[in-house]
Design goal:
The protein is mainly alpha-helical and about 230 residues long. The chain folds into 2 domains: about 60 residues, Orthogonal Bundle (Arc Repressor Mutant, subunit A), CATH 1.10.10; about 150 residues, Four Helix Bundle (Hemerythrin (Met), subunit A), CATH 1.20.120.530. About 75% of the residues lie in helices and about 5% in strands. The protein has 9 helices and 2 strands. It has a two-stranded antiparallel ribbon with strand order 1-2. Strand 1 and strand 2 form a beta hairpin. Helix 4 crosses helix 6, helix 5 packs antiparallel against helix 6 and helix 6 runs antiparallel to helix 7. The longest helix has about 30 residues. The radius of gyration is 18 Å and the shape is globular.
């Protein structure tokens, strides 16, 4: 498991949820594996009560599966699960992009532009973790730019379920560069407030991400078949 640091008591719940989410997203514990509560309480310097409350939040996001009297496990998604979730998210992000072009402020679009520049630097530095967080921030700003609370809430309830696989998707250097370029095109469409184009680009971007995720899953299945002990 990745190295973690004890948590300061200020804003304990919020910080604990964030740290646990990042740990699970970035592959600290494999899918399907039981979460060792004792190990985590010691690592984070917290008691089991706040840890379990944080796990409930992550369960609601789809990152964790809770079973009565059996504890928590890292959620495992099938290819059908991914197809179902991504298909809905494509529609939601496409709608959000179209509406955001009408409702986002110039300052919000400028923030997306600044984040795009930062993300491009992180790509050039091959800083995958930083890139992922900046990438997610861009999507979140566009989502919030729709100013549609039903859309935002629905999207967030689903996005958490695929956060881990989005991070762990095995992107080749070519696909990674293509993803950065796709974001650049989305920014151009957003700045021109072309709702139809922004929507189409966001849908295509997620569709390409799904293909990367599928390839990652298939690679894992092949590795397991070749090494049954893995």
């Amino acid at each position: 498991m990745n190295q973690v640091q004890p948590i300061n008591r200020l804003h304990l719940h919020e910080v604990l949820v964030t740290k646990l989410r990042d740990l699970l997203t970035e592959g600290g514990i494999p899918p399907g594996e039981k979460i060792n509560e004792k190990s985590l309480t010691e690592a984070f310097g917290v008691s089991r009560t706040p840890l379990r409350e944080a796990l409930k939040v992550l369960a609601s996001e789809g990152l964790v599966t809770l079973t009565p009297n059996r504890g928590a496990r890292v959620a495992r998604l099938s290819e059908k699960d991914l197809d179902d979730v991504f298909s809905v998210l494509m529609s939601l992000e496409g709608l959000a992009g179209r509406i955001a072009c009408e409702r986002m402020t110039d300052a919000e679009i400028s923030k997306v532009e600044a984040l795009q520049a930062r993300m491009e630097k992180e790509f050039e530095q091959s800083d995958r973790s930083a890139y992922f967080h900046t990438n997610q921030e861009i999507h979140e700003i566009i989502l919030e730019g729709s100013q549609n609370e039903v859309l935002i809430t629905t999207h967030r309830s689903l996005a958490g379920r695929i956060r881990r696989v989005r991070y762990l998707a095995n992107m080749s250097p070519e696909r990674w560069r293509q993803a950065v370029e796709e974001h650049g095109a989305i920014l151009v469409a957003l700045k021109s407030r072309d709702g139809v184009l922004t929507s189409d680009l966001l849908i295509t971007h997620l569709s390409n991400k799904l293909e990367s995720v599928r390839n990652t899953i298939k690679s894992g299945e092949r590795a397991t078949a070749e090494d049954p002990a893995s």
